[in-house]
Write a structure and sequence with these properties.
Elements (H helix, E strand, L loop, with lengths): L1 H25 L1 E9 L10 E4 L5 E3 L5 E8 L3 E5 L6 E4 L8 E2 L3 H7 E4 L2 E4 L7 E4 L1 H5 L17 E5 L8 E5 L11 E4 L2 E3 L10 E7 L2 H4 L10 E6 L5 E16 L8 H13 L8 H4 L10 H5 L3 E13 L3 E13 L6 E15 L2 E15 L40 H7 L1 E20 L2 E20 L23 E24 L3 E22 L18 E22 L3 E12 L8 E12 L11 E15 L10 E10 L2 E9 L8 E14 L4 E18 L19 E22 L2 E18 L7 E2 L12 E3 L7 E4 L2 E4 L5 E4 L5 E2 L10 E4 L5 E11 L2 E11 L2 E3 L2 H7 L42 E3 L2 E12 L2 H4 L7 E9 L3 E3 L29 E11 L1
Parallel strand pairs: 1-7, 13-16
Antiparallel strand pairs: 1-4, 2-3, 2-5, 5-6, 8-9, 10-15, 11-12, 13-14, 15-16, 17-18, 17-50, 18-19, 19-20, 20-21, 21-22, 22-23, 23-24, 24-25, 25-26, 26-27, 27-28, 28-29, 29-32, 30-31, 32-33, 33-34, 34-35, 35-43, 36-37, 37-38, 38-42, 39-40, 40-41, 43-44, 44-47, 45-46, 47-48, 47-49, 48-50
Length: 1010
């Protein structure tokens, strides 16, 4: 009986086990399906993972997948690089097909804002998003240049030709007399610009343009904010991406300059018109009549550019990683111009329960080699090298110069000099987030940027003037000693942010997104420099120096303590409200002036969400308006202290003594304030196939820190050396305008069209400089006469062009200028009051057009960009038309003569060199408007049917592109983009340097994903 009972228990246990096994088997499923892209094409390599487990597969070449023994209540996670990760509940299904969406579709729904993100439909401020995909289509060493024309209200100022050239961003006009650059924030860390970024690392770029959007950053955001978020990894299978490109750069335009025969004809004409000089012997009886040196061909070249990037990304449900390496090598089209950039990045995220951690770190090393700024186009009749291959200058005694001037060979200075700037920078952030309860979380973010800069310049002793026997001519000015100058600078800033956020919806209608935070920022700067000065290093090959020299150093530090809050509220996604307030306390000001408050408010109304709205034609209609106050502290940290610099040598009688340059404390300095108002309408038509956004803005910057000369009785002697003068809160500047953005999207079977355009109309005006402040003048036009071509004064745009108005020529061929009384005057009759405003460097309109076409596996992009309504002061014309010891354009042969009176050029004579017809006038003013095909690209993505034959390859795209393919402009010199200066010398071409030149770039590349 006992054995029988035991046997029954064993059978019962076995039956129970079978039932449990059957039940478990019955609750699990075998799942299969197909994954396609937005065009319903199969996607190979999509990661399909059972969420919360390590079970997963990748789709095959036909996009198919299969998973066994998956629980009915499980969730599948589908992820693929460049596409939105999707989580789909099984819900007892055996077949689950998924169509993936491009990642940029998700980015259109959520916008990165200060200290967080916000739904685009809930936005009430002026924020522009720039597609990272579009930025990456353009080949450039600096991400900032790729933003040009991409978004309204943003002006990009740059100077082409030089590898790694500086690029400045101006948001809604220059409003300060100090810095004009916006605040750059990369992954929560403050940066000096975008040049250290790898374009392939970028996830999104947002530009905060109005006071409401930027007020959360307070005193640092008066010039707008540029937010950059870099890519994180995604859970699923590890993805390896490699992209490489090679570019060929050529000068986009060359000037039509005289050859030797034309020059001799012109130079003899100048000599005949100049009683003080005779014809140069070499222009009458040349010793080498066949020599015709093309200096443009010697200065400019065709140059290569290459880039390489590789990244590895992936992760699991609780951790992700994304690492990348990049390298850019660019040789500029200007000789001795080179740029190398090495980039490395590692981003990682970790999640455990309520806690998550995010780490982002990038390191960049750059080396920039730039030639000396002046590259005069010398006479085509003079030699470049002698029979020994040495660079030779031309002495006056050789008889080439009309004015009996020694002509130095500029190529010697370019090639002999060894000069570079090396930067090593590290930007990183570490953020920890803890979810306290539903919708409420705390975040601690620590971020910082470190930049180490090394400048180096070595000039060996060398000779370029030689006697007939080949020996150096020591009577002429030679580079007689070997010199060295070197400097090092360290710049470090860090920020500690404590953020408490609440994101909740109540009663399904009331949505609140609230933020409370504190921020502590420190900045450190130190610079040391040494120069050999008048001392010789001993030999041309010596590149170190330990002797007596000129030593300099400087150290600064500053701190900023901030408290801030923001409340975003929307009711049923209809009525929108945003409020923010920030309190900043800066160590740059004296006690009693350190604290600034920066409030903002914005409202919005989604009319299309109203029950009475008829969506038949208009699918979207939104109104919004905003007001915000921002601040700026663009001053040195110690202006509120009495300072003494020295010792400075000075002569008193017959003795040499040392004294100190003094700067008295300026206790009353306080914040610049930017008050911004914005109103906008957003319209969508035919299910948002066509969308339009129109905005009106007005931005007034008050209490600008303007330079003011001090009275001699003040005892302030700071005007020694650089001519710096103390600043006072006096000036006020206004920028106002309209912005328009239009986008059209349509898909026909295999063809997809996307067209985007933007247009900005803006006016800049100085409202006041303040009592006792004299108009601010720009740089000297020429050392031959004391005149400056720009002025900044009340009622005018910043840096307006000032000069004389040319109204014709007299019977002697000299320009006639319009006097204040309306009479025509020659140069020697002119007075300062006869000058008038002759141009505006700020464009009335900036615009961009972007066309994207996709047909099956082909893609095509054409991007146009331009400006209109601005003038250029072509200072380079002074050397081209009035400096008769350098070459001239061919059209100078059309200068006035008694038999050639119907011309716009005055008589060519040496009196022009020191003034006369060469004074600043409308002769130098040209229309700066242009339309440029900035980028055109065609690419082909290989279909999966071909990739099937290549094991492990998920995608392969090849492409070819051209940049600056053509430019429509009336500007007569190389290029209408004349420089990066945004203030008092904006729009001047060739002031103290050679005229701006741009490169036409032909590029080919490929992108592989494994």
């Amino acid at each position: 009986m006992r054995d029988k009972a035991m046997m029954k228990r064993h059978w019962a246990a076995l039956l129970l086990l079978c039932l449990c096994t059957f039940s478990a088997w019955a609750q699990s499923l075998n799942i299969k399906g197909k994954v396609t892209d937005a065009n319903k094409e199969p996607l190979m390599g999509v990661s399909v993972v059972v969420k919360g487990t390590t079970k997963g597969v990748s789709t095959d070449m036909n996009g198919n997948y299969a998973l066994d023994n998956v629980a009915k209540g499980a969730t599948l996670e589908f992820s693929y690089i460049g596409m939105v990760t999707q989580n789909i509940a099984v819900n007892g299904r055996n077949t689950i097909n998924v169509q993936m969406k491009d990642e940029n579709q998700q980015l259109e729904e959520v916008v990165v804002v200060g200290y967080g993100v916000q739904k685009k439909s809930s936005m009430t401020a002026a924020v522009s998003s720039v597609s990272a995909k579009e930025v990456q289509k353009q080949v450039t060493a600096n991400v900032a240049s790729a933003l040009q024309g991409r978004t309204p209200g943003v002006e990009i100022l740059q100077r082409g030709g030089i590898a790694g050239a500086e690029v400045n961003i101006v948001v809604r006009g220059a409003g300060s007399f100090g810095a004009t650059a916006p605040l750059y924030i990369i992954d929560g860390a403050i940066a000096d610009g975008l040049d250290a970024l790898n374009p392939s690392d970028i996830e999104s770029i947002e530009i905060l343009k109005d006071g409401s959007a930027a007020a959360i950053y307070g005193s640092r955001a008066a010039n707008g904010v540029v937010l950059v978020t870099t890519k994180d990894g995604k859970s699923g299978k590890t993805i390896v991406q490699v992209d490489a490109s090679y570019s060929y750069q050529t000068p986009s335009k060359m000037l039509d300059m005289m050859n030797a025969e034309q020059w001799r004809t012109f130079a003899n004409q100048v000599a005949d018109n100049s009683p003080a000089y005779d014809r140069a012997p070499q222009n009458v009886n040349p010793t080498d009549p066949n020599r015709s040196t093309d200096w443009q061909d010697l200065y400019y070249r065709n140059a290569p550019m290459s880039s390489f990037n590789a990244s590895v990304s992936g992760g699991s449900e609780n951790s992700t990683f994304n690492t990348s390496l990049g390298y850019v090598r660019q040789e500029g089209i200007i000789i001795k111009s080179e740029y190398d950039k090495y980039m490395a990045r590692i981003n990682a995220t970790f999640k455990k329960g309520r806690f998550s951690l995010s780490e982002k770190l990038s390191i960049t090393n750059t080396k920039k080699v730039s030639p000396p700024g002046g590259r005069s186009l010398e006479m085509p009749t003079i030699p470049v090298t002698d029979e020994h291959g040495r660079y030779v200058s031309t002495a006056a005694s050789k008889g080439y110069s009309i004015t009996n001037t020694n002509i130095s060979n500029p190529l010697a200075a370019i090639y002999k000099q060894d000069a570079f700037t090396r930067n090593t920078s590290a930007t990183g952030s570490l953020a920890g987030t803890f979810k306290l309860m539903k919708g409420l979380q705390y975040k601690l973010n620590v971020a910082g940027t470190y930049v180490n800069t090394n400048t180096y310049k070595h000039v060996p002793a060398y000779d370029t003037f030689f006697n007939a026997d080949g020996t150096a001519d020591n009577k002429l000015n030679q580079t007689a000693r070997t010199s060295l100058s070197e400097g090092r600078a360290e710049n470090f800033n860090y920020t500690i942010d404590n953020l408490l956020t609440l994101n909740r919806t109540f009663q399904k209608k009331h949505h609140i997104d609230a933020l409370l935070g504190t921020s502590w920022m420190r900045e450190f700067y130190r610079k040391n420099s040494i120069s050999s000065g008048v001392h010789d290093l001993g030999a041309p090959t010596v590149k170190t120096y330990n002797g007596e020299g000129v030593v300099g150093s400087n150290q600064e530090n500053a701190a900023l303590l901030s408290f801030f809050g923001r409340l975003n509220y929307d009711y049923s996604n209809k009525y929108l409200l945003s409020l923010s307030l920030r309190r900043d306390e800066s160590s740059k000001f004296a006690k009693g002036h350190r604290v600034g408050y920066f409030p903002s408010v914005s409202v919005g109304w989604n009319l299309h969400s109203e029950s009475w709205f008829n969506p038949e034609l208009l699918s979207k209609l939104k109104l919004r308006a905003s007001y915000g106050e921002l601040g700026a502290n663009f001053i040195d940290p110690y202006t509120f202290l009495n300072l003494a610099y020295g010792p400075v040598p000075a002569a008193f009688g017959n003795s040499r003594q040392y004294g100190y340059v003094t700067r008295f404390a300026q206790h009353d300095l306080t914040w610049e304030t930017s008050i911004s108002s914005n109103a906008a309408i957003e319209v969508g038509v035919l299910n948002n196939m066509l969308t339009l956004t129109a905005e009106y803005f007005i931005k007034r910057n008050n209490n600008l820190l303007a330079p003011l000369e001090s009275l001699p009785s003040s005892g302030q002697t700071i005007t020694i050396n650089k001519g710096a003068v103390p600043n006072y809160n006096t000036a006020s500047v206004e920028n106002k305008g309209l912005e328009f953005s239009l986008e059209f999207r349509k898909k026909w079977d295999d063809l997809t069209l996307n067209f985007q355009t933007n247009l900005t109309y803006m006016q800049n005006k100085v409202l006041s400089l303040g009592e006792g402040v004299q108009p601010i003048r720009g740089e000297l036009m020429s050392g031959k006469f004391n005149d400056r071509p720009t002025i900044t004064k009340e009622g005018l745009p910043i840096g307006s062009f000032l000069g004389y108005k040319v109204v014709g020529t007299n019977d002697q061929g000299d320009f006639l200028f319009e006097g204040k009384d309306g009479t025509a005057k020659v140069a020697k009759q002119l007075k300062e009051e006869d000058k008038q405003v002759i141009g505006n460097p700020t464009p009335d309109f900036t615009f961009g057009y972007n066309l994207n076409l996709n047909y099956r596996n082909w893609d095509f992009t054409a991007f146009f960009q331009g400006v209109a309504g601005n003038e250029i002061f072509s200072a380079a014309k002074y050397d081209l038309y009035f400096n008769y010891d350098t070459n001239a354009p061919v059209d100078a042969l059309n200068s006035w003569t008694p038999t050639n009176r119907n011309t716009k050029l005055p008589i060519a004579k040496t009196d022009n060199y020191s003034g006369g017809n060469a004074l600043p006038s409308t002769f130098y003013i040209e229309d700066g408007s242009y339309l440029r095909l900035k980028n055109v690209q065609i690419g082909y993505t290989f279909p999966l049917t071909i990739l099937k034959k290549i094991g492990g390859l998920r995608s392969l795209r090849i492409y070819g592109s051209a940049q600056n393919l053509f430019t429509l402009t009336k500007y007569s010199l190389y290029d209408p983009e004349v420089g990066s200066n945004a203030l008092f010398n904006k729009g001047i071409d060739g002031l103290g340097t050679s005229p701006a030149i741009n490169a036409r770039v032909y590029n080919m590349g490929l992108k592989l994903t494994f």
